[in-house]
Design brief:
alpha+beta; 2 helices
Length: about 50
């Protein structure tokens, strides 16, 4: 069975999305800019 990070990355076709694991809360945190970049394919996702 895939772990949560693999499932989420598969949703974005394996494109790079920076993430970090918080072991105390057992949660992933993702870069919003990377997600916006993947969803919009913008040349400058920081303007969103």
């Amino acid at each position: 069975m895939n772990n949560k990070l693999e499932i989420i990355l598969n949703l974005f076709d394996g494109k790079e999305i920076r993430s970090i694991w918080n072991s105390e809360k057992e949660e992933y945190y993702f870069s919003v800019v990377d997600v916006i970049n993947v969803l919009t394919e913008s040349k400058d996702p920081f303007h969103y």
